[in-house]
Amino acid sequence: MRNTQEFIDFMIGAGVLSFGDFTAKSGRKTPYFVNTGNYKTGMHISILGEYYADLVAGSGEKFDALFGPAYKGITLVAAAAGALYRNHGVDKPFFFNRKEAKDHGEGGSLIGYIPKDGDRIAIIEDVVTAGTAVRESLALLKSAANVDVTALYVSVDRMERGTGERSTLDELRHEYGINVYPIITARDIINSFPEGDGRVAKMEEYLARYGAGL
Predict the structure, then answer these.
(1) Could you tell me the CATH number of the domain that includes residue 167?
(2) Which pLDDT band, with edges at 50, 70 and 90, does 106 fall under?
């Protein structure tokens, strides 16, 4: 697996990780922003898929299918599933959802693999902030079949509080029993810069204010 510094450099080079003054979806003012929508070339998605595949394979989790929530999760899950087979010899089905259910043709809101009772599902996401999208995915999957969502793989753990004192990812672990795996964390980003870099001070200040007991 490539190291965290290489992934951070990859994100910055793709314009996915940027620094400045931003407002997150949560309303929090943040000194850095992750926009996975900026992965937009064949090289980008191929490399990103390999990072996810390395993370999935390295976790040792047992699952029957990979799910990517629309919209960004669609390309992520396809790239991860392809790289998982190509680099690790693990061939697993994948599927994703429509934002609106289709009432003609094949119908329904799910495309690709159709989950069945007893399936173990792993979710491929980009960045989890408040966890709203993940909770929506859990409700959608449970409405399709009596599945067990066992793992969640994300590119960045922002290490922020969720609705309580726990981090959002810890809330998901505690509430739903999901094992959560990030490629990198906010702490990895901080540690990637030399001491005295202005970005470090701003990120440390942000985590001191919004971090989960860090």
Answers:
(1) 3.40.50.2020
(2) low
